Amino acid sequence: MKSNFIKSFRSNKNLKTYIVFLFFTTFIWVLLQFSKNHSQVITFDIEYTDVNQNMNISNKSTSKIKLNIIGNGFKFLYYSLLNKKLQINSKRIINKHAFSNFNYLEGDDLKQYLKSRYFNDSEINFMGNDSIKIYYEQLIEKELPVKLKSDISYASGYKSIKGLSSKEIKLKVKSTKTFLDTLKFIESKVLKLNNVSEGYSGKLELINPSPKNLTLSLNKIDVFLNVDKVTEGSLLVPITVLNTPESSKIQLFPKEIKIVFGVLVKDYKRVMENKNQFKVTADFKSIKSNKLIPKITTTPENVFNSRLTQKEVEYILIQ
Question: Can you give the CATH number for the domain in which 222 is found?
Fold first, then answer.
């Protein structure tokens, strides 16, 4: 049936002539309609260009403007469907308000500027606001610490004492004082490493919390991770009692307590030979259930995960 229709259409010259005529007249009608002047209200976004690199345009500045445009349909097709943004050269707006901190362009001056840039063959009228105001904020530089974020798991018997590190511990940033006062540090993206048994070095991307308002001097920084083989050690350390009652002596049971700790294999011997670097104290003012509570107060820098093998110590006061 379909093939019969196609054969009929090909052989019917009157039908083909009618369709061509219909298409042509429709095209002419659309062309005529678009050639006529029309009136339409359009809201445009404003984008400021050529901004001084040491200044920032505040959010208080005019961001939209509503215009009643009288022009042909082709212009409306362009502004309605393709481009609802007006770029305004900030250096052209030089009128300084006498009693405030903004520059402005208004009335006939603004209309002339817009017509010369965008509407030279159309008529425009303002709907409501007939001015553009630009509020400037001074940009300043400041150094902020970098906060490295990582999610690292180590192979059995391996660890990094210092963790993920970088030589760039501080970063120069640039923004307004108001915005910089809200920042305490710049974070990195999370570095994920699994089953680590050797050192690592690479680049880590920084997170800009507000790219529109903040400029970072670096987008990535060099990071490194020193990894060593570790083992576990233990020592008996004497307990020092604090705040003992006057005219009294105290006898502990036991007098020494066992500390268990992690240490690098290369540092194990040195740590074991310097027992006095560990300190354990018990405060007499913090007695619980007539027992002293020991706490580790000092350890060498190269040990980690230190813990006591018992939580309480018995005692006798001797008058």
Answer: 2.170.120.40
The Cα–Cα gap between 159 and 180 comes to: 37
CB 113 within 8 A of CB 105: yes
Rounded CA-CA distance 303/231 in Å is 10
**Other Cβ atoms closer than 10 A to 103:** 19
pTM, rounded to two decimals: 0.63
Give CA separation, 289 vs 198, 216, 292, 312, in Å. 48, 56, 8, 10
Non-local CB neighbours of 144 within 8 Å, separated by 6+ positions: 170, 171, 173, 183, 184, 185, 186
On whether the CB atoms of residues 156 and 140 are closer than 8 A, the answer is no
Listing DSSP states for 126-164 in one string gives ESS--EEEEEEEEEEEEEEEEEEEEEEEE-TTEE-SS-S
Contact call for residues 162 and 231 (beta carbons, < 8 A): no
Domain co-membership, 213 together with 241: no
Do residues 57 and 82 share a domain? yes
CA atoms within 13 A on the CB side of 103: 16
Structural domain harbouring 17: 2-34
Cα 312 from Cα 292, distance rounded (Å): 6
| Tokens encoding 29 | 């009608």
**Claim to verify: residue 259 and residue 301 sit in the same structural domain:** yes
pLDDT tens digits in sequence order for the chain, 319 residues long = 555 555 554 555 566 666 665 666 665 555 555 556 667 788 888 888 888 888 888 888 888 988 887 776 666 666 665 567 888 888 877 766 655 667 888 888 888 888 888 877 778 888 878 888 888 888 999 999 999 999 999 999 999 988 999 998 899 999 999 899 999 999 999 999 999 999 999 999 999 999 988 999 999 999 999 999 999 999 999 999 999 888 788 888 999 999 999 999 999 999 998 889 999 999 998 888 889 999 999 999 889 999 999 999 998 888 7
